[in-house]
Fold this protein.
Amino acid sequence: MLSQIKTALTRSQNTLLQDAAGAASLVVMLVVALHLPNL
């Protein structure tokens, strides 16, 4: 099972970086949207 996870991570390394960047941008947008009423 651990070898399958390692294989999946090495095969989809570029995609994982893009997914992480997308998730980070969603978190930033959520935080900004939640602080908008306070402005």
User: Anything to note?
Assistant: Residues 1-38 form one domain.
